[in-house]
Structure formats: structure tokens, C-alpha cells
TrEMBL record:
This is NHL repeat-containing protein. It comes from the Bacteria. It comes from Pseudonocardia abyssalis.
Length: 372
């Protein structure tokens, strides 16, 4: 691929099992270097954190990996690096996880969206040893509880499949995917049991219907999955409606988005699986990341990453594409061999400086891309 097509981005370091030419099957007994369908990733100057979703665990590298297949330093959610499964070695959810997805380090605290346990976990510091229990559980009555919406009705303090998390504009945001809404807490990470201050996508905290029980619109979600933005812009990847919605300024209450990417208007939800492909239509965009004017969208089911030089206000096509030979292609691993610059269902993104971390879920790896 040309540098102009990719915007100067190129793959640097591969974390996960090797896949010489073909798809790597997940290991029957994982190690600290193996991944199985990773869905979330966080990158900063001091850490790489990966939601190793298929192994029901989170891996932490202290320091950014510098070599391929480098093993993680810390394993959370399992008693050791070779155990997998939702039961966490038979000990229950107090230390275990079920399909963790979103991961985040904010002000020195590690945050994990433990999606299928319908909760968010918080460690007051990023653990330096494995098998450490979280210090705080959000969305459940106690660390042993795992029922959707706390086993009660949908409310401002409950969750159902929370997949994405972010701190944007001073608020802590959760893409509460199964409730088809986005929750926001003023002042950052909340205390246990505190209800959300903002509920986006539903008429009130008790409702959870797809697209508010009607047609797609500027104030509805089908499958909100990730959140990013700046101090004056909030972006939500609404994967089920094949679009990214934007609010400027940040909404202080439920209300319509003002901009959309991936659709011609705010009332369209057309899936775009077949050609001719372009850079302005999506198919199940599960992740979105924004940093210093670079916008990245994981166009997951089209097996590509779309990049914009600046956030478009008019829905224009992307400036660059990763993982495909052109904007017109969408094949898994380009319908060819697995290579360093191919993608198969990219599910999570994280931007930091001149690095882009991609949770390349279908290839059971995370690839760190660099920009020259």
C-alpha cells in the first residue's frame, strides 16, 4: 500500500500468537503472549492494555512492547496465564471476567468494561502483579453480582453489555450497548451506586429499545459501542446503525446529534457490505478514536481502518485507509494471506502520539502501527 493511501501509517509491532500466512487458532491453553479475539485496547506512554475477550481476561504490558509476540507482564481475570473461561478457575466473578471489551487507564486508574458481567471494574492503580481483584465495581450491587441491569429494570445505575468506555470532556462515558444508550457521569469516574447524570439515546433511564422503539434518528442508537471526542465534541460509534454520531458541544441531557459519519443523513442506517466501496460508508463500525485532529474509525465488517486528517463536519469520505489496497476493497486479510498490514474484523482502537493500536480480533492479535 502506498504511503499516500495509508497516510504514512505502517505496522510496527505484533502482539499475539504468530500466524505465518494463515489465521492463528486460539491456543487451547493460552500464555501471556497469546490472544483470542481481542476486542479492546488502550495505549499510552507507559502501558499497553488489551481486553483478551475470548480468554475472558485483561493483559497489561508495563511499557510499550518493542518486539513481536512479547508476553504481557500482568494477567487479570484469571488465576494464571494458562487458564481461560468465564469461571476464573472456578472462583467466581470477584476476580473473574466475562468477555471484557473496553479498557482504559485514566489518571493512573485501570478501568475495564466487563461486558457480559454487565459492569465496569476499576483498579485504583494499574496492577503490577497478576490476579488482583478490582477496587471498585460499577453497575452491580456487589462484586459477586452479574445479572443484566442488576436483575431489576433498566435504570441510570444499571448496565446491560457495556462495551465501550471513555473519559471525554470531564465526563466518564459508558456505551451501555445492550440498553441501546450511552451513560455519562459528571466529574469523571463515579463512586459505587451513583446513577448517571446523562442518558443519551432513550427518553428516560427506564427505556432500552433499539432506536427508541422506532425508526433510526439523530437521537437513537441500535448498537452503541465506543466513545471518543474532545472537550467540545462527543463521538459515538453506533455500530448497529452503521454510523458515527457527533454532538457539539457535549450534551448535558438526551438530545439529537448534529453530525453523522457513515450515512448520508441522520435518519439513514444502510449497511454497506458490497461494492463499490467508498470511504464514506460503514459496515458495523465498532470503534472510534480521536487525537490531535486524527480521527480513526474501525470499519469492522469491512476489515479496514478509515482515517481522517481532521474531524469532518460534512460527512465527507476518509482521507486514508489501512488494511485494504483501496477504498473499494473489503476482504478479510484482503482475501489473501495474513500479513502485517492486513485486517480481519478490527474491533478496538487506541491513538497515542504517533502510534495507533488496533485490536485485530479475527486475527487474534493486536498490531501497533506507527506514522512516519
Amino acid at each position: 500500500m502506498t504511503s499516500e493511501l495509508t497516510g504514512g501509517w505502517a505496522p510496527r509491532v505484533w502482539v499475539g500468537a504468530p500466524a505465518p500466512g494463515g489465521l492463528a487458532l486460539p491456543a487451547a491453553h493460552p500464555t501471556a503472549a497469546h490472544l483470542y479475539s481481542p476486542r479492546g485496547v488502550h495505549l499510552d506512554a507507559s502501558h499497553l492494555v488489551v481486553a483478551d475477550s475470548g480468554n475472558h481476561r485483561v493483559l497489561v504490558w508495563h511499557g510499550v512492547p518493542t518486539s513481536d509476540e512479547q508476553p504481557a507482564d500482568v494477567v487479570l481475570g484469571q488465576p494464571d496465564e494458562r487458564t481461560e473461561g468465564r469461571a476464573a478457575g472456578g472462583r467466581g466473578p470477584e476476580r473473574g471476567m466475562a468477555v471484557p471489551c473496553g479498557v482504559l487507564v485514566h489518571e493512573g486508574r485501570l478501568v475495564v468494561a466487563d461486558a457480559w458481567n454487565h459492569r465496569v471494574l476499576v483498579w485504583d492503580t494499574v496492577p503490577v502483579t497478576s490476579d488482583v481483584a478490582p477496587d471498585l465495581v460499577l453497575g452491580q450491587d456487589d462484586p459477586a453480582a452479574v445479572e443484566p441491569n442488576r436483575g431489576r429494570g433498566c435504570a441510570a445505575d444499571s448496565m446491560y453489555w457495556p462495551f465501550g468506555i471513555a473519559v471525554v470532556g470531564g465526563r466518564f462515558w459508558v456505551a451501555d450497548t445492550g440498553n441501546r444508550r450511552v451513560l455519562g457521569w459528571d466529574g469523571g469516574l463515579p463512586d459505587h451506586d451513583r446513577p448517571a447524570d446523562v442518558v443519551l439515546g432513550q427518553p428516560d433511564a427506564a427505556h432500552r429499545e433499539e432506536n427508541r422503539g422506532g425508526d433510526v434518528g439523530p437521537d437513537s442508537f441500535r448498537w452503541p459501542h465506543d466513545v471518543t471526542g474532545t472537550d467540545d465534541l462527543l463521538l459515538v460509534a453506533d455500530a448497529g446503525d452503521h454510523r458515527v454520531l457527533g454532538w457539539t458541544p457535549h450534551p448535558g441531557a438526551d438530545g439529537p446529534a448534529g453530525t453523522v459519519l457513515g450515512q448520508p443523513d441522520l435518519r439513514s442506517a444502510e449497511e454497506w457490505p458490497y461494492g463499490p466501496h467508498t470511504g464514506d460508508r460503514f459496515r458495523s463500525p465498532y470503534a472510534v478514536a480521536l487525537l490531535d485532529g486524527t480521527l480513526a474509525v474501525a470499519d469492522t465488517a469491512n476489515n479496514r481502518i478509515l482515517l481522517w486528517d481532521g474531524v469532518p463536519a460534512d460527512g465527507r469520505a476518509a482521507d486514508h485507509v489501512l488494511g485494504q489496497p483501496s477504498f473499494a476493497a473489503n476482504g478479510e486479510n484482503r482475501w489473501s494471506a495474513v500479513d502485517r498490514d492486513t485486517l480481519c474484523w478490527p474491533y478496538g482502537l487506541s491513538l497515542h502520539g504517533d502510534r495507533l493500536a488496533v485490536a485485530d480480533s479475527g486475527n487474534n492479535r493486536v498490531m501497533l502501527w506507527g506514522r512516519s
